[in-house]
Amino acid sequence: MNAAKLTLVDYGAGNLPSVERALERLGVETQRAATPEALAGSRAIVLPGVGHFGQLMRTLEERGLRGPLRDAIARGTPFLGICLGLQALFVSSEEDPKQSGLGIVSGSVQPLPKTAKLPHMGWNRLRRLRPSVLLRGVRDDAYFYFAHSFAALDAPNAAVAVCDHGACFVAVLEQENVLAVQFHPEKSGDPGALVLGNFVEFARAKTAREEARR
Amino acid sequence: MSLARRIIPCLDTDGASVVKGVRFVNLRDAGDPAELAARYNREGADELVVLDIAASRDRRGTFLETIRRVAEELAIPLTAGGGVRSVEEGRSILRAGADKLTVNTAAVLRPELIEELSREFGAQAVVLAIDAKRCAKCPDRSVAALHHASNSALASGAWEVFVRGGREATGRDAVAWAQEAVARGAGEILLTSMDRDGTRSGFDCALTAAVSCAVGVPVIASGGADNPADFLAVFSEGRADAALAASIFHDNLQRLGEVKQFLASHGIPVRLVA
């Protein structure tokens, strides 16, 4: 397998082609993985997502991707979650309390308060909490495109940037090899491309380090 | 931090080409959708809407190809629609590269369609398009009055919903219909004033405020844009979350960047693109 290739988890998410296109513009080769076999041996994994938490988790389960995804993350494979792909990392979501999440990051996903218009739809800015891999080179006042009604409100230790819409929520999280954004980098113009490029660079550097060690 | 107000160019197409008309009639060709999309993406559009206003069954394939070509050019969200009557038709539009889809006539005829689409794709992907016209027999509603009353009751009956490209009256109240659609799962309202559409006499701020104050989802105002002050008015008085325009951008009568600069200088949060 090509070392530079990124694996996109294909569970039927609507934004998968947009993520592919955005990575293609950066000159990155991608492959889709809809089976455990296709996921095995991935050098870097992207979980795009739009829609419903329960549906995402159920589809991962049905396709036998849940275990392999957790294993790959546990092995240290660079991982990028997008939108619902960020929410899937948590233990659970109030959008579907019966379905458990991947449980990689502690805490739960909650609805945004109805004091603001929902969905939180459109371009918003971030407030940074600490230095970030994904936001390297991104201007502090850059806007990113959001489209969601649920979010991680109780900022866990993994949060590196937050956003406000009725409440403060996690916009970017980074926990070792696990990186995730609540916004859609594939729809966020130049700053979004920079975020995707930073992930690609992070994955490349990690792969190179591991190969040097062998 | 606050959510930027969006400026959204709209491409009305016959499936393949961009067309323009006044009040839904006298259509003429205005260019290639993909070329315009690339330009607006570059100039700082916050989103793009592509509509198939002909929406004829036999040309659906052509429109899907148009969506694909437009999506290729964009690093911003894309909304597409026109004649969507089922979950399967909705799916084909999203698969072609749209992030959201609009429903209009079919949702009025069968409101359950909104629930079906929302359940399948999420509320964030379902935009209810409303074509509204002021009732001749209804009294004029001033924006100030709307802001002071518990507005939906007051506004009720002032604007009527039209379907089939504005050709057919429904007897439905626009504000009530917006509220029902949101309750059924619509995540956004694309609200077109038929009185203002194509006239370049400014957005209908009273209509926009009436709907925007009555629902908890974002409202995109459409119809009547002429100059930057119109956008300022619809974001302040009109309480719009986004504003849509077509011909003034297609014909270079206004530049996206200049409209945004004007708004920023008047304290409206906008995303400025260098």
SSE arrangement:
The complex is a heterodimer of chains A (214) and B (274).
Chain A: E1 6-9, H1 16-25, E2 30-33, H2 36-39, E3 45-47, H3 53-62, H4 66-74, E4 79-82, H5 84-87, E5 92-93, E6 108-111, E7 120-125, E8 127-128, E9 143-148, E10 150-151, E11 159-164, E12 168-175, E13 178-181, H6 189-213
Parallel strand pairs in A: 1-2, 1-3, 3-4, 4-13, 5-6
Antiparallel strand pairs in A: 6-10, 7-9, 8-11, 11-12, 12-13
Chain B: E1 6-13, E2 18-22, E3 25-31, H1 33-43, E4 48-52, H2 60-72, E5 78-81, H3 87-95, E6 100-103, H4 105-109, H5 112-121, E7 126-134, H6 143-148, H7 152-155, E8 159-163, E9 168-173, H8 174-184, E10 188-193, H9 205-214, E11 219-222, H10 228-236, E12 242-245, H11 247-250, H12 256-265
Parallel strand pairs in B: 1-4, 1-12, 4-5, 5-6, 6-7, 7-10, 10-11, 11-12
Antiparallel strand pairs in B: 2-3, 7-8, 8-9
Helix pairs in contact in B: 1-2, 8-9, 10-12
Helix content of chain B: 25-40%
CATH T-level fold name of chain B: TIM Barrel
Under the CATH scheme, the architecture of chain A is: 3-Layer(aba) Sandwich
The CATH class designation of chain B is: Alpha Beta
- How many strands in all of chain A? 13
What CATH first level of chain A would be assigned? Answer: Alpha Beta
What structural class do helix, strand and pairing data of chain A support? alpha/beta
List the uncertain runs of chain B: 148-155
Alpha-beta content class of chain B: alpha/beta
Quote the CATH topology of chain A. Rossmann fold
CATH H-tier superfamily of chain B:
Aldolase class I
What strand order characterises the main sheet of chain A? Answer: 2-1-3-4-13-12-11-8
Got a strand count of chain B? 12
N-to-C series of helices and strands of chain A: EHEHEHHEHEEEEEEEEEH
Task: Note the total helix count of chain B.
Answer: 12
H/E element order of chain B:
EEEHEHEHEHHEHHEEHEHEHEHH
| Biggest β-sheet strands, sense, barrel of chain B | 8 strands, parallel, barrel
**Share of β-strand residues of chain A:** 25-35%
Query: How many discrete structural domains of chain B?
Result: 1
